Inverse folding.
């Protein structure tokens, strides 16, 4: 079952950061109460406006909201994306009592889709964990774009019928492991279900 929302323009953005740059800014929070998350972008990233993109899948058309920001040096990208799966799918999974297995399948699909969207990037490492009760997965990857190596980290979280993606891509491998990058990922927070307009 293909349920992975793949950003159609992600490779275009990778090309842009190999060519351009963004203005320097202070470390700034990015927050969406309606989508239930907050994160603090590293210093040097302007808070972008959200983009909404329809995503086709085996379970119907889904809506993905994405924020993408180029680093001030023009050699890195931060991306946050939120996709809602059909509520009916989540309720069916809950009723069948196989939520853990279904969540793993969704994380597998997200991982594979993310790698495919970046010229079939090579998976370097994968680690599953949880955040405020939401199942998560963190991957490291390597790919090539316009003849240059690109390194990245993607964190995925499944919370009820919602998929969160937090990503960082850079031309410098050390930047992926830098303290500022780690702080960016660690700053990602999920709001309680009641705060984002859902009920248990």
């Amino acid at each position: 079952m293909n349920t992975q929302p793949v950003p159609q323009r992600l490779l275009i953005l990778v090309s842009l950061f190999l060519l351009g740059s963004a203005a320097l800014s202070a470390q700034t929070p990015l927050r969406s109460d309606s989508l239930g998350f907050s994160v603090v972008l590293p210093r040097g990233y302007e808070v972008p406006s959200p983009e909404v993109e329809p995503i086709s899948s085996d379970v119907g058309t889904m809506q993905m909201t994405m924020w993408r920001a180029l680093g001030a040096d023009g050699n890195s990208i931060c991306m946050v994306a939120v996709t809602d799966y059909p509520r009916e799918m989540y309720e069916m999974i809950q009723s069948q009592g196989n939520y853990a297995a279904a969540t793993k399948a969704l994380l597998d699909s997200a991982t594979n889709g993310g790698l495919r969207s970046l010229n079939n990037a090579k998976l370097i490492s994968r680690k599953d964990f949880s955040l405020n009760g939401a199942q998560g997965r963190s991957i490291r990857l390597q790919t090539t774009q316009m003849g240059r190596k690109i390194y990245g980290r993607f964190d995925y979280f499944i919370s009820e019928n919602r998929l969160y993606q937090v990503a960082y891509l850079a031309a410098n491998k050390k930047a992926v492991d830098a303290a500022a990058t780690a702080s960016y990922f660690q700053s990602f927070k999920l709001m309680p279900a009641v705060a984002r307009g859902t009920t248990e």
